[in-house]
Structures are given as structure tokens and as C-alpha cells.
């Protein structure tokens, strides 16, 4: 009675165990870049139309700007997560194609937040209880 040597079942390879083929990597990176650009521009157009529809009503315009800032933050997080996923799958060209829109989204987000902060300065602090204003000719100036 002889026993045949059985071969062990083939091991399933993890997606990150070998590098993604260059053609697939570049193709997927370009498609992902174009889709992200279309989504970003579409959302920007949508928020712009909301501002236009507000017809000068400042409260609605401010709410739309804040919603746009929040959306841009979420978009930036999503792009960074996609870049991390591409790094996990060892797709260097896709990582590069994700870091470019992530950098652009981060710069645009910083500019938009700065513009919003400049348009809405913090109110001046209230004077203390013992403060007396100095009027010209009053004689009570300190």
C-alpha cells in the first residue's frame, strides 16, 4: 500500500504581496483622477449655484460656504484614503495620481477656510466693568 504524495493546496496570494502591473496601475490611476476631478468640479458648481440661488441672502450664503468647506474636508479624507489603499496594493502610479488631487484639494481647502475666516472676523472683546472711555475734553482720561 503506497500513499501518493499530495501537494498542498495553492496559497492565496494577498493583493499586496506583489506589485500591481504597470498598465493596470497607470490606467486605474488616470480613471480615478478623472472621476475625482469631475466629482470635485461638479460639487463646486452645485455649491456655486446654491450661492447664486441665495440672491444675496447672507445667512444662506454663509451656510452654503460652510457646507462646501465640510464637503471639501470629507473629499480630502476620501482621496487620502484612496492613496493609502493604492499604497497597500503597491500601485505607485495610482498613489501619485491620488497625491496630486489630495495636494490640490488641501491647498483649495486652506484657501477657502482662510477666505471664510477673513470675511467673518471674531467680534471685538467686551470692555471690562471698570473701563471708562476717554472723550475729548472730558478730563477723566487714564
Task: Write up this protein.
It is a single chain. This protein has 142 residues and is mainly α. The chain is 64% helix and 0% strand. The chain has 3 helices and no strands. It has helices at residues 22-53, 58-88, 92-119. α1 runs parallel beside α3. The termini are far apart. The mean pLDDT is 87.
Judging from the principal axes of the Cα atoms, what is the shape?
elongated
Write the H/E string, N to C.
HHH
Amino- and carboxy-terminal Cα gap: 112 Å
The biggest beta sheet is recorded as: none
Structural class, from secondary structure content?
mainly alpha
Mean pLDDT reading: 87
How many β-strand runs? 0
Secondary structure tally, helices: 3
- Rounded to an integer in angstroms, the radius of gyration calculated over CA atoms is 28 Å
Beta strand %: under 5%
Helix content: 55-70%
Task: Note poorly predicted spans.
Answer: none
Concise account of the structure shown:
The termini are far apart.
Note the main attributes of this structure.
mainly alpha, single chain, 0% strand, 142 residues, 3 helices
Any chance you could write out the topology, listing elements then pairs?
Elements: H1 22-53, H2 58-88, H3 92-119
Helix pairs in contact: 1-2, 1-3, 2-3
